[in-house]
Amino acid sequence: MFSCLGRSLSRAIPRCHAAAGCSIRLFGTQYSVENPPLPFPEGMAESVKTWAIGSLNQQRNLLSRAVTLLESSLPSHVEQAELLLDYVLSVRRMENEKYHPKQFVPGSFRLGIAGPPGAGKSTFCEALGTLLTSQGHRVAVLAIDPSSTRSGGSLLGDKTRMLKLAYDPNAFVRPSPSNCSLGGVAEHTSDLVMLCEAAGYDIVIVETVGLGQSEVMIDDMVDMVMLLMPPAMGDELQGEKKGIMEHADIVVINKADGPLAAVAARSEAENRRAVQLQRPKAPFWKCEVTRCSALQKTRIQDVWDICARFNKEALACGSLEQKRVNQNSSAMWSQLITQIAASCKRNPAVLEKAKELDAVMKSGGMTHRRAGRELKDIFVKDEYKNLK
């Protein structure tokens, strides 16, 4: 059924913190299906067991299969995906309690990169990723590509702009379709972040779909949000807009090279003034503004130094731990809404009532708000009847 399917960081984050808390790479343990670290849950398919162990053993081909399973919307796959994710996270939690009892040790540093189309996000991800792997880190990049609202298809072309990083044995690059989800990320992005963390990637980068001011959901999945912008788009009015600007922990002006170097310097200065208009996102941090050239690979280390300093300060003051708690709670409610909506669309009584309400709304006899409430009442009543 499932076969189809830094220089600065080493100072800012202790290696055991940066490398998945208790990564297999640190302690040399290799697991097998025959001798698993924990008993497999009842009902887990044999192929899924292989993918789970392969992910823990940092085998990229098996991790890719696990990612495909987590992205699937088939009911049978959803159940197996939950078993897989719960299992690998339980193993990592067991390791963490063994080596770091009663201590919060983040499995990875999670960085979200947002920005408008054409800002050079994929090129920047490759420049940053190759820098980090050269410093001994393992980097996962989850690149969210836009999906067509008509066909549902997606080109998944971001990986083609990160070929060097994709072939790096210490990197994992995975493009994912947005499936028309709002907020710049895909429905299962947070699950994929946790899976990559469990697979021993100490830095997980999420590249959003590229919708500019609407990419706010990324903040619910990562530790730090980077807003990457091309030159000449950082006017001071940005500081007054609601959206991604107020969620950014760092603003980076990309393409600061050649004829655009002077323009990028002006954009950096304008954005510095713009962030002064914003209320600080966190008490321990004030949004930083800098510039770089991903194409020429200049000032990439400077950008990373700021990210590492942010992570160090967030960890020291307890903000990072609390943010992870809040993110888990937010993801729980999001999953509840998603699963209830899916159940409604499969419920025969709801589907029959929906056809009736479509005709009523077409004649103007009912608002969509009231129709939605009636469908909700039908669903609750039908589910309660089934429980009896």
Automatic annotation (TrEMBL):
<feature type="domain" description="AAA+ ATPase">
    <location>
        <begin position="107"/>
        <end position="279"/>
    </location>
</feature>
<dbReference type="GO" id="GO:0003924">
    <property type="term" value="F:GTPase activity"/>
</dbReference>
<dbReference type="InterPro" id="IPR003593">
    <property type="entry name" value="AAA+_ATPase"/>
</dbReference>
<dbReference type="InterPro" id="IPR027417">
    <property type="entry name" value="P-loop_NTPase"/>
</dbReference>
<dbReference type="GO" id="GO:0005737">
    <property type="term" value="C:cytoplasm"/>
</dbReference>
<comment type="similarity">
    <text>Belongs to the SIMIBI class G3E GTPase family. ArgK/MeaB subfamily.</text>
</comment>
<protein>
    <submittedName>
        <fullName>Arginine/ornithine transport system ATPase</fullName>
    </submittedName>
</protein>
<dbReference type="GO" id="GO:0005525">
    <property type="term" value="F:GTP binding"/>
</dbReference>
<dbReference type="InterPro" id="IPR005129">
    <property type="entry name" value="GTPase_ArgK"/>
</dbReference>
<dbReference type="Pfam" id="PF03308">
    <property type="entry name" value="MeaB"/>
</dbReference>
